[in-house]
UniProtKB/TrEMBL annotation:
Residues 1-20 form the signal peptide. PROSITE patterns: PROKAR_LIPOPROTEIN (PS51257). Keywords: Signal. It comes from Actinokineospora fastidiosa. This is Uncharacterized protein.
Length: 117
């Protein structure tokens, strides 16, 4: 009986049933974070480069994604969408923000702001 147990242990070890992880490749090394500085409404003509895919009405609050940008916002539409990051217009009398799902793309949602905290 002892010989059978020893043989079984040798076979299990040889077949890869050990503590080694099989079938899980080592993870790829982490890449550096790419920082993209974005100011989509620095000048009146800047808004023309964005394709407005949707328009909505809602309120905005300071963005936790872009705390260093004083014009960055997180906006909540009247139909309960959360959009972040959004950027309020720097121009006096403007009550709109542009919300971007991809800062390298050209699509934006225009929000008419009802409250800005």
């Amino acid at each position: 009986m002892r010989g059978v147990v020893n043989l079984l242990m040798v076979l299990l070890g040889a077949s890869g049933c050990s503590n080694a992880v099989v079938g899980h490749p080592s993870p790829e090394p982490l890449r550096a974070t790419e920082v993209i500085l974005l100011s989509p409404m620095s000048a009146p003509e800047d808004t023309a480069r964005w394709r407005i895919t949707e328009e909505a009405v809602g309120g905005c609050h300071s963005s936790s994604i872009s705390p260093a940008n004083s014009r960055a916002r997180r906006c909540f539409t009247e139909d309960s969408q959360v959009l972040d990051p959004c950027y309020v217009s720097p121009f006096a009398g403007s009550d709109e923000a542009l919300c971007l799902s991809d800062p390298t793309g050209g699509d934006a949602v225009r929000i008419v702001i009802t409250s800005d905290a």
